[in-house]
Amino acid sequence: MTGGTRERMIEAAVHALQRDGVEGMSFTDVLSESGAARGAIYHHFPGGKGQLVAEAATDNGNEVRALLAQLPAESPAAVVRGFLALIRPVVQESAGGSGCAVAAAAMASSAHDHDNVHNAAGVAIESWIGELAGRFAAAGLVQAEAHELASSLVTILEGAHVLARVTALIECRYGR
Asked: Is 109 helix (H, G, I), strand (E, B) or coil?
């Protein structure tokens, strides 16, 4: 982990969200992984856990959007192939119990400043769809088709996360 204390805490929060979701994420885990002192929590995140989760979702969302911006746009098929190559290892990690930090924020309960958390997740997902739609438009699709296909692919990605995570949890709990 590199960067300042705040950046390390956000990165640790992303990992905790991927691993444990919002309800399972604790400041203790974030502090331990980031190497930050306890006093850093409210110094950097005066809004508490809700602020940290929202900022982690925003940061993770920006990272994913930047990766989507690099997809080849020679043709719509090239965009799809690039997208599938990009998400394949992510979905494989989900099968091992890892999840999506943005999806975790989207599904957060009302106990954690849900308006800001849900807004951050919504903005991130919309940015993915917009970036992907832009790649499809650059590859020759009309905007409406580009947006529909991008929405479908992001839905497939998030659905794959959920399905892989649930399957991993069932196998862990019930040995199936």
From this structure: coil
Residue with tokens 């199936």: 176
CA angle 2, 120, 42 (to 5 degrees): 55
Measured in degrees and rounded to the nearest 5, phi and psi for residue 153 equal: -65, -40
- Residue 4, CA atoms < 13 Å, CB-side half-sphere: 3
Chain centroid offset of residue 113 CA: 18
Q: How does DSSP classify residue 140?
A: T
Q: Which two tokens stand for residue 24?
A: 């399972």
Distance CA 67, CA 165 (A): 23
CA 151 to mean position of chain CA atoms: 15
Q: Which residue has the tokens 């885990």?
A: 29
Q: What is the pLDDT of residue 2?
A: 64
Q: Which amino acid is at 47?
A: G
Which of 7, 16, 132 has the alpha carbon at shortest distance from 68?
Answer: 132
pTM of the full predicted structure? 0.89
pLDDT along the chain (176 residues), means of 10: 86 92 89 92 91 95 97 97 93 81 83 79 97 98 97 92 76 72
Cα–Cα distance, 105 to 120 (Å, whole number)? 8
